[in-house]
Amino acid sequence: VSAPPGGEDQLLAWLRERLGPGSLLGDDTALLPAAPAGARWVATVDSQIAGIHHPADLDPALVARRLLAVNLSDLAAAGADPAYGLLALAAPAGYDHRRFLAAFTAAAAAHGVTLAGGDLARSPERTVATLTLLGLLPAGRTLLARGAGRPGDALWLAGGLGASAAGRLLLARGARAAWADGVGAEGESDSSLVIDLPPSLPPGLADAAHRSIRRHLAPLPQLALGRALSEVAGGSVEDVGGGPVAAIDVSDGLALDLARLCRESGTGAEVEVERLPVAGAAAELAPWLGADALDLALHGGEDYALLFTLPPAAAPPAGSACAHIGRLTAGPDLVLLVLGERRPLAPEGWDHLLG
Amino acid sequence: VSAPPGGEDQLLAWLRERLGPGSLLGDDTALLPAAPAGARWVATVDSQIAGIHHPADLDPALVARRLLAVNLSDLAAAGADPAYGLLALAAPAGYDHRRFLAAFTAAAAAHGVTLAGGDLARSPERTVATLTLLGLLPAGRTLLARGAGRPGDALWLAGGLGASAAGRLLLARGARAAWADGVGAEGESDSSLVIDLPPSLPPGLADAAHRSIRRHLAPLPQLALGRALSEVAGGSVEDVGGGPVAAIDVSDGLALDLARLCRESGTGAEVEVERLPVAGAAAELAPWLGADALDLALHGGEDYALLFTLPPAAAPPAGSACAHIGRLTAGPDLVLLVLGERRPLAPEGWDHLLG
């Protein structure tokens, strides 16, 4: 019995041949291997919707990679190791499913993620791609959670702020990006992004613009740091000192995600503005964009930086580039310290319902 | 720090209060409990898109229940026990998220499913709801798979055919349905569907119409049968005789899903038309709908019946209402036996890309 051309079963046959023997695809339900002794499974889900989370005409290869990256960022913030993905892809007629799937499986393989299942559907107006990622938390590591912070803990941030939001504004002003063909799993690199900038952009801003768009479209999940922090939280790193570590990835803006961490931890927070790692690209581009760099950094979102807490005396894991941006407080308020002055920090950012 | 009214965080706070203490919600990543000794996790994903899988204006409470049911049907066809769900819900402004979530969590609780995570987003034109279900396959049970069939195996079907497709046609002709409010987890029953029929429908067809629409909107996943078959496949049921059991749930039409089972098993199949459990409601309604009842039964889809194979001498699990509809053959062809005459059975049904 052969599958009809252009249909679902033919696409799946192509994908399974591409993935090779031992693929978990073929049934509606995938049987996961037994977790290693003492390890636990974790799960997260996130979507990318055309015209909401990325430009409506974005290259399917970039959508696929971004979908994976934002989900990996959630696992990074939990301190878990990525393992399996289940992909639901709803797309209009004529969508280049093969381009999406080839990019997805290549990027997934580079992160140790196996596609274990999926669902295909038609969506008349726009592509909606949803990925569920399953990961493993090995024995000896503790899940990082939003609610593990305590008053007095130091607040740390890994990754720059604001560049992604600047990249989003550049795309809204006509910048375009595509993924360079012919780059396989070996050549994984976000330098494979081909970017066209708006003609009106001053040449001196081109480098900052490239960096911003790259950060927006190809975020870098902080998996190694999350892993190291989950060892700290598990008490298995002697020189750092074990103890509770709260963490959240900055997807909706530092202020809003900090508010979430504080709400779950039952704390407030103080952030020192001069310690914030505002991305150089955001600072350079802000005037041309008519934006405020600090506003992009605090509320712009989609940085996929990792915000975390450590006991006051503890140092962040060796080799990680982290900024010590403030501390958790007993009070419920979020405070921004600007040259010693205390200003309220509004918990505003990207709301997925209000937009 | 309080969450802004009408936004994502406020909705999640409402949901977590509803679910009570111990909820896995609150972080982007959920830590699943360790599987019992010898048990394995399984995973499946399926979507419901407004206007594609159900009428665009369908009651959110019914969308939620149907989303759960179609995913449960996949676990039933694998022989696994449902455990956790991750829900991605993309909906237009003004969507009644609380109605959706209240119905979802009530129906999930009735099936032992805990909501472990989710993602909310705006989708300008239509609702796209995607559920990933995680289940457990306990020790001693074997996953049912499409590819486990062998030539000579008997082909069985649990559940009627064609009624769901008739229900879909009735909805396209103006029938309407809603979920009755005020029915909690205790009162779970698909009789809580309130149905308005097209005025032009002859009164004598009203009962068949109610049954068809109910079957379409509130499918009944065959979880108990799938569980019993996974015990047969695991060799742990002495009186039935253990052995490989192939299974698939009939979501895209008997002919197409049989073709998939045969392709994975490397077999053909013969189906005896007079043994097919064509739903009485489909037979009654077909003339008024201008449809052919056999066509609805073979190709209509969304029956969520369970198609499975057993070794030739084995009987289906006691207490299950199954029809013995044919057998797997060595040849690659699908054959329909009509009064002894052999006709080709086209592997046609619902294709999720071609529509």
Total of DSSP H or I helical runs spanning 4+ residues of chain A: 9
Distance between the termini of chain A: 47 Å
- What oligomeric state best describes the polypeptide chains here? homodimer
Low-confidence stretches of chain A: 183-187
Secondary structure: helix percent of chain A: 25-40%
Q: Which two chains share the most extensive interface? A: A-B, 80 and 80 residues
Secondary-structure element series of chain A: HEEHEHEEEHEEHHEHEHHEEEE
Kindly report the average pLDDT value of chain A: 92
Give a short account of the largest sheet of chain A.
Answer: 7 strands, mixed
Shape of chain A: globular
Helix-and-strand structural type of chain A: alpha+beta
Q: What portion of residues of chain A belong to β-strands? A: 15-25%
Beta strands of chain A, count: 14
Radius of gyration of chain A (Å): 21 Å
Q: Going across the biggest sheet of chain A, name each strand in turn.
A: 9-11-6-12-10-13-14
Mind explaining what this structure looks like?
Two copies of one chain form a homodimer. The model of chain A is unreliable at 183-187 (pLDDT under 50). Chain A is α+β, with helices and mostly antiparallel strands and 355 residues long. Chain A is 30% helix and 25% strand. The first copy, chain A, has helices spanning 8-19, 60-78, 97-110, 163-172, 206-217, 223-233, 254-265, 280-289, 293-299; strands spanning 30-31, 40-49, 81-91, 114-122, 128-137, 154-158, 176-179, 193-196, 247-250, 268-272, 305-310, 322-329, 334-338, 341-344. In chain A, the strands form three sheets. The first copy, chain A, has a seven-stranded mixed β-sheet with strand order 9-11-6-12-10-13-14. In chain A, strands 2-5-3-4 form a four-stranded mixed β-sheet, covered by helices on one side. The longest helix of chain A is centred in the N-terminal third of the chain and has 19 residues, at 60-78. In chain A, helix 2 (60-78) packs parallel to helix 3 and helix 8 crosses helix 9 (293-299). Chain A contains nine helices and 14 strands. At the A-B interface, helix 1, strand 1, strand 2, helix 2 and strand 3 of A face helix 1, strand 1, strand 2, helix 2 and strand 3 of B.
